[in-house]
Amino acid sequence: MAATHRLRLDLQLFSGEKTEAATPKKKQDARKKGQVAKSMDLSAAFILFFSFLTFYLFGGFMKEHLIGLFRTIFSDYLLMNLSLDNVMVLVEKVMVEMMFILGPILGATLLIAVASNYMQVGFLVTGEGLKMQFNKINPIEGVKKLFSARAAVDFLKSVLKMTIIGIVVYNTLMNERSNIMQLAHLPMEEIVLYSSSVTMMLGIKIGGILIGLALFDYMYQRYDHAKTLRMSKQDIKDEYKKTEGDPHIKGKIREKQRRMAMQRMMQDVPKADVIITNPTHFAVAIQYDASKMGAPSVIAKGTDFMALKIREKAKEHGVMIMENRPLARALYAQVEIGEPIPGDMFQAVAEVLAYVYKMKGKAN
């Protein structure tokens, strides 16, 4: 049983089955392309609910301005002489009043549309959706989408919404049937007021119900989006190689960098004042320029084969080589290339340099 389980896991590595959650990089790349978890039903439901709520809150204000507009038109402007100036004044008056009347509902709709989208996806600006994608007009792909699982879910959602809305409308009208039967005996103004109140009540009820359904749709969209972005184990490995670099390529780069560093180090050996050796296993090149350096510095070092190359390079350019086993080991272990000699080794190195200068006839 255990062997079968291991075999299944091993085969999964090669099957390409997308069983792993998307990495942060893939989620970020998908977001840049505009691929985010978003429910259009949630935005539409919020707009419907708050639009009717705005009508309910600002209905009196809108009614007064609308009645005032008609009163002004019929009592004042229709009695004026027909001229271009009078028509322009009338048009301006109507436009200003319509802005006051429609302003609350248009402002609320715009605000809710922006807020509902921001709550779902945050701030996102991308032009990927504007690019021409010919695969979207492929008839074969279109037919596949018609019979896909997403299409089936969308169809069921539509049926569910229409069923619930139908039940709500039916129950509301049945509860109001006695009042509806009395409308024939009421004046027109009361009929309009009653009809508008029932309509607003229905709109708020339906909007609230649709918001509840849309929340479930939003959760489904998040699940479906996460499922779409799933990756196989091979996808994750390939992404890691792209972001972190292929280990083989990184190894070659490090090897090339090491060779270049060695070449630069070997080019500095002729500048050394002395090469301190072990004598065969270690070699450390020391340089001291009183006008530029506060203390002697190590400009090259190596062991075994590299130590041999340093000694050969030093002989070619007449650099003195001195054997001092403890000092060579200590310098190699404690001082990196380009670093000055530490204080505890300064006396020993100074003695070596003084001897070198004396031998070269540089001592004062």
Describe this structure in words.
It is a single chain. Strands 3-2-1-4 form a 4-stranded mixed sheet, with helices on both faces. The protein contains 13 helices and 4 strands. The radius of gyration is 42 Å and the shape is elongated. Mean pLDDT is 79; it is low at 1-15. It is 69% helix and 6% strand. The chain has 2 domains: 33-124 and 137-230, no CATH class; 258-360, 3-Layer(aba) Sandwich (name from scop). The chain is mostly helical and 364 residues long. The longest helix has 41 residues, at 188-228. One of its GO terms (biological process) is protein secretion. Required for formation of the rod structure in the basal body of the flagellar apparatus. Together with FliI and FliH, may constitute the export apparatus of flagellin. The chain crosses the membrane at residues 42-62, 98-126, 147-171, 191-220. Pfam families: Bac_export_2. It is a multi-pass membrane protein.
Largest sheet: 4 strands, mixed
Strand order of the largest sheet: 3-2-1-4
Cα end-to-end separation: 87 Å
Low-confidence parts = 1-15
DSSP strand (E) fraction?
A: 5-15%
Overall average residue pLDDT: 79
Using only CA atoms, what is the Rg? 42 Å
Number of helices: 13
**Percentage of residues in helical conformation:** 55-70%
SSE series: HHHHHHHHHHEEEHEHH
Helix/strand structural class = mainly alpha
The total domain count is 2
